[in-house]
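G., the chain you wanted modeled:
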Amino acid sequence: MNEFEGRIQAILDAALDAAFSHVRHGGDHESRKLVAARLLDAAQSGMTTLDELTSVGRRALVDLKIRSRA
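Predicted structure as tokens:
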């Protein structure tokens, strides 16, 4: 892993934690996995800042909650 990849991985980890910061026990494994996949897609499309990726993660979590109620 080069320096850029390491930095992006750290940002992805922080964004995932931020998205679940208000979820009891940090969320379940499946929800975290789905949000992480959305974060990875966003990073691969060019979003690389913590703010951008945190927003993506929070939106993905909202989408999951909406789908689970439907």
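The chain has one domain: 3-69.

Shout if anything looks off.
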